[in-house]
Structures are given as C-alpha cells and as structure tokens.
C-alpha cells in the first residue's frame, strides 16, 4: 500500500509525540525515584526518634535496677540473717532485656529496609556544563503541556528571559527539576485553571517560580488525568514541618542543594495560592 502525502506528514508528528511521551515518562520516573527516597528518609527519621527515646529510658531503667541491686547487697551486709530480699524483680530484668532486643531489631530493620534502598539516591551525581537557559525553559513548557496541562486544559502563563542567558549546571537535572515543579502545580490546579511560570536573574541567581491556586478535589480525583501517583498527590495536602518539602518535590530540592542553591514551597492548602521557588547560582560550581 502506497503512503499518501498525509501519511508522510503524520509520521514525523507521531514520532515527535512519541518522543515527548517517552521523555515525560523518564522525568516522571526520576521524580518518583526521589519521591521514594524522600518517603524512606522521612520514615527512617520519624521511626528513629521514638527508638532513641526508648533507648534512653531503657538506660534509665538499667541504672535504676543496678542501683537497686547495689542497695540490696549493702542491706544484706548490714542486716545479716534478715529475711530482707530487696534484689530487683527478675521479671523486670527480663522486661528490660526484651525492650533492648526490640530496639535492636527495629534499628536493624530500619537500616536494611529503609536506609539501604536509598544508597543510589543519597548522593546526586552532577555533570555541570554551560548551556543556554531559554531553550531549556521552552523544552520544559512543551513537556509539561504534553504530559498533563493539555489534558487538564490548564493554561501556563510563562514569563521567560528574552535573551539566552547562560547557566553552568547539570542541564538534565535542572530540566527535570523545573518539569517536576510545573507538573506538581498543574496537578494541584483545577480543570481549566492557570499556572504561572517565571524565570529571572536576581542578584546573580537564577530564580524559577511556579504558582497555582490549589484545588484539593481535582488533585485527588481519580477520574482526572494525572502524572503523579495517588499517594504522592494525597501527601502534597498533608500538613508538614516547614523545613520538609512535599515528597513529590524531593527532586527539585535535591537538585537545588546539589548546585549550591535553595528550594522552598508554600503549603498546598485547598483554595489557597501556592508558590514553588527554586534558586540556582548564576554559575554552579564545576
């Protein structure tokens, strides 16, 4: 069967669309990888805190039992022949041993099940090189629209630098970070909503800002198009310590810190505006 001109024209378009889907899927996988790292790190920290407290109290009990035993021995010497039996209850000794064994088992489990899987993501390897910033920003917008914005009818209002400002950084990681920020904002926006995306040079720093108005219902609506997993979207709405970021934004945070920059975001509270901000030095260290 002979290909028609329309078929020939459609082929490059299909190929380009497939390439966009493949690249968006790669970025989503990278975001999920660091989301897992953040979740495991949070779980490890939150589980170790009570274990440390239990360990301290076990030490207090151990000292108290030792003091009881010492007092009993002294009483036995000064009241020879008496029926006094003041030694610590053997059941308390066994209980303390059980507590210590439980603490050791839980600590080993945290080491093996939570900390060990993070070995590959604890250190973010970078390949810094100079590149023009504007083409990267344009690519991020194309990928974000193809991945989710178009399906949600979400408009992205972009304010980008007119000149191709250079940046020395890991281009791939920076693109992944900005894409993840945009996707998180689109996910949190209502259908037919708007997301703003700006990138400026402020005091020798490249500052990227993504802002939206949060619609919690759409964020967790299983009937809508999504890129992020269900538990990741629900976690975005969870109240957290101001120093902790939403798990799905772990990648942008790690990229910022690895380049000597900063990262922060407002809470994702229903009906409230939220801004995500990434700052990178104008020239990241080589």
The average pLDDT score comes to 83
Order of helices and strands: HHEHEEHEEHHHEE
Distance between the termini: 55 Å
What share of the residues lie within helices? 55-70%
Shape: elongated
The largest β sheet comes out as: 5 strands, mixed
Number of strands: 7
Query: DSSP helix count?
Result: 7
Strands side by side in the biggest sheet: 2-4-5-7-6
> How much of the sequence is in beta strands?
15-25%
Any low-confidence stretches, pLDDT <50, length ≥5? 77-85
**Mind telling me the C-alpha Rg?**
28 Å
List keywords for this structure.
five-stranded mixed beta sheet; alpha+beta; 7 strands
Write up what this structure looks like:
The protein is of the alpha+beta class and 286 residues long. Helix content is 55%, strand content 15%. It has helices at 5-78, 90-115, 133-152, 171-188, 216-219, 230-236, 250-258; strands at residues 129-132, 155-159, 166-169, 194-202, 205-213, 262-265, 273-281. The strands form two sheets. It has a five-stranded mixed beta sheet with strand order 2-4-5-7-6, covered by helices on one side. It is elongated, with a radius of gyration of 28 Å. Residues 77-85 have low confidence and may be disordered.
Write the layout of secondary structure elements.
Layout: H1 5-78, H2 90-115, E1 129-132, H3 133-152, E2 155-159, E3 166-169, H4 171-188, E4 194-202, E5 205-213, H5 216-219, H6 230-236, H7 250-258, E6 262-265, E7 273-281
Parallel strand pairs: 2-4
Antiparallel strand pairs: 1-3, 4-5, 5-7, 6-7
Helix pairs in contact: 1-2, 1-3, 1-4, 3-4, 4-7
């Amino acid at each position: 069967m002979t290909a028609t001109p329309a078929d020939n024209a459609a082929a490059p378009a299909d190929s380009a669309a497939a390439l966009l889907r493949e690249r968006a899927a790669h970025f989503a996988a990278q975001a999920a990888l660091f989301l897992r790292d953040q979740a495991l790190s949070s779980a490890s920290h939150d589980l170790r805190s009570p274990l440390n407290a239990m360990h301290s109290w076990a030490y207090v009990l151990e000292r108290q039992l030792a003091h009881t035993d010492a007092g009993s021995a002294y009483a036995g010497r000064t009241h020879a022949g008496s029926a006094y039996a003041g030694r610590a209850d053997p059941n308390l000794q066994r209980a303390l041993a059980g507590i210590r064994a439980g603490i050791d088992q839980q600590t080993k489990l945290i080491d093996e099940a939570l900390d060990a899987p993070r070995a590959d993501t604890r250190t973010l390897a970078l390949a810094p090189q100079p590149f023009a910033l504007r083409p990267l920003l344009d690519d991020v917008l194309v990928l974000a629209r193809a991945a989710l914005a178009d399906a949600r009818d979400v408009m992205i209002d972009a304010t980008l630098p007119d000149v191709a400002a250079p940046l020395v950084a890991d281009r791939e990681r920076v693109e992944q970070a900005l894409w993840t920020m945009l996707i998180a904002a689109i996910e949190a926006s209502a259908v037919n909503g708007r997301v703003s995306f700006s990138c400026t040079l402020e005091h020798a720093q490249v500052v990227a800002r993504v802002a939206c108005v949060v619609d919690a219902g759409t964020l967790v609506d299983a009937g809508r198009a999504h890129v992020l997993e269900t538990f990741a979207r629900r976690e975005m709405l969870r109240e957290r310590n101001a120093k902790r970021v939403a798990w799905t934004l772990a990648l942008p945070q790690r990229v910022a810190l690895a380049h000597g920059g900063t990262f922060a975001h407002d809470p994702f509270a229903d009906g409230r505006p939220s801004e995500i901000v990434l700052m990178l030095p104008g020239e990241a260290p080589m």
